[in-house]
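Project channel, design review

CF: Before we commit to the Candidatus Weimeria bifida constructs, I'd like one complete example in the thread so the newer folks can see what an input/output pair looks like. Taking Transposase.
RD: sounds good, go ahead.
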Amino acid sequence: MPKKSKQYMWVLHSPGKGGGPPIYLYEYLGARNGEVIQDYLEGYKGILVTDGYQPSTPS
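CF: and here is what came back for Transposase:
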């Protein structure tokens, strides 16, 4: 990683089931667009909370 570069951290949270502990996963994925998180969310069904970031797309 370069000394000065913009990095983005993704934080995923699972509240735990059946009295189990919650799980927090912190990942640096190098970008903020939705493509970088698709593998993590494949097959996921539930609530997704985001910061509302909408990357610009070329016309």
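RD: helpful, thanks. The beta strands are 9-14, 23-28.
CF: Residues 1-52 form one domain.
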